[in-house]
Design a protein that fits this description.
Blueprint: E1 16-19, E2 28-29, H1 34-44, E3 50-55, E4 63-70, E5 74-78, H2 82-93, E6 98-99, E7 102-104, H3 123-131, H4 137-141, H5 145-149, H6 156-169, H7 184-196, H8 199-214, H9 219-231, H10 239-247, H11 251-259
Parallel strand pairs: 5-7
Antiparallel strand pairs: 1-2, 1-3, 3-4, 4-5, 6-7
Helix pairs in contact: 6-11, 7-8, 8-9
Length: 270
């Protein structure tokens, strides 16, 4: 896995430091002016899918913003700190909305808060996205796969999980308009089901149960259906299927197969 967003090195005098993947693993001084620093980052995005700009107004303090290359010469700005808003403002006030030939990629605001995606993500994926400064689901799904893979700790299976979340929560495929986010009450019912059911049952039938929630099936009937699904026998892993998926390098699909089947080697004897 390639890590494109690097750890800050604390020996720079510059106020702004750009982190794209130089071979020595160090950030690059981007000067003391935000406009100059942004141009440094944009030059990095010509060859890299993502970069991080760190702002150090004083010793021991820092803010940061992440920038992702999307759709050719459009840049997606992600971050909760003030420097992220300042970067967006630079694009908004630039002549023609362009900085060094790049334009800001707009996402819906205020958007769907990231915590609404929690029922559709495993804990590790959710923590990674939150750590990287994503505040909304729309910010996440706007990042191309290459940009997601540049995040430390994100692999192909995590990207697959994120895209599955996108389809379930927003509808449609990446880059296509969806059907809108789940209402808050529906998210609550989905979260309740996920918390009550064994993980393997949720992996096998979660999408079906979410569709029942969206169809406004009464809670009593939903509980009966969920209980019936939980009582079903879980099929066992087939070692041949595991071998074929592993050999083909389909690790995301292999993860799904393992999550939806019982491993006989881990079932205690009666």
């Amino acid at each position: 896995m390639r890590h494109n967003l690097l750890v800050l090195v604390e020996d720079f005098d510059a106020v702004f430091v750009c982190h794209a993947p130089p071979s020595n693993g160090r950030g690059v001084s981007a000067g003391r002016d935000l406009g100059q620093a942004l141009r440094v980052v944009l030059r990095c995005l010509v060859r890299e899918p993502a970069a991080k700009l760190v702002y150090r107004p004083e010793p021991g303090a820092r803010e940061w913003v992440q920038l992702y290359a999307v759709r050719g010469t459009r840049v997606h700005v992600v971050g909760r700190d003030g420097v992220a808003d300042r970067v967006r403002d630079l694009f908004a006030t630039a002549g023609g909305g362009e900085v060094s030939g790049w334009r800001l990629h707009e996402v819906s605001r205020p958007g769907t808060l990231l915590h609404r995606a929690r029922p559709f993500l495993d804990s590790r994926s959710y923590r990674l996205l939150s750590r990287e400064g994503f505040a909304t689901v729309e910010e996440v799904v706007a990042v191309p796969d290459a940009g997601l893979l540049s995040i430390r700790g994100v692999g192909r299976s995590t990207v697959d999980t994120i895209r599955q979340m996108q389809r379930r929560l927003l509808g449609g495929e990446p880059g296509r308009s969806g059907q809108g986010p789940l209402p808050a009450e529906a998210v609550g019912r989905v979260e309740s089901l996920r918390d009550r059911l064994p993980g393997v049952v949720w992996c096998r039938h979660g999408a079906f149960l979410q569709d029942l929630v969206m169809a406004e099936v009464p809670q009593t009937a939903l509980d009966v259906i969920a209980g019936s699904l939980a009582d079903e026998a879980v099929p066992q892993l087939d070692p041949t299927v595991v071998m074929l998926l592993d050999t083909a390098g389909l690790l995301g699909l292999l993860k799904t197969y393992r999550a939806t089947h019982a491993d006989p080697s881990q079932v205690p004897p009666e």
